[in-house]
Design a protein that fits this description.
Helix content is 43%, strand content 24%. The protein has helices at residues 2-9, 43-65, 87-98; strands at 11-15, 18-24, 31-35, 72-78. The chain has a four-stranded mixed sheet, sandwiched between helices. α2 packs parallel to α3 (87-98). The longest helix has 23 residues, at 43-65. It is globular.
Length: 101
């Protein structure tokens, strides 16, 4: 239900292979969620993509977000094209979605 609420009420930004939904967290700390649909890919490909996105969230967003008030939350959703780009292009798209470039 919390993910559905963020999808419905949060602001959405689409940046190439990713969509990022932002909103205010109902808790006192910053939160992030990652959604990687199958799109016909193997579990190995899906897990690799999830690990990359988790790392981007941890290194590029979470550190700064912990100090924001009210606490923010994001939901990163991979689109089918996310499986076809390399890690640096994915990181660039993630940064663009966050407003950093």
């Amino acid at each position: 239900p919390e993910i559905r609420t963020l999808l419905r009420k949060g602001s959405r930004r689409r940046c190439g292979p990713l969509e990022v939904y932002r909103g205010d967290s109902p808790t006192e700390s910053a939160r992030a969620g990652i959604v990687v649909p199958r799109y016909g890919h193997t579990i190995v490909q899906r897990n690799r993509l999830k690990r990359r996105l988790r790392e981007f969230v941890r290194t590029e967003w979470l550190v700064e977000a912990q100090s924001e008030r009210p606490a923010p939350e994001i939901l990163v959703r991979a689109r089918p094209a996310a499986y076809d780009v390399n890690a640096s292009a994915l990181r660039e798209a993630f940064s663009r979605c966050l407003g950093g470039g």
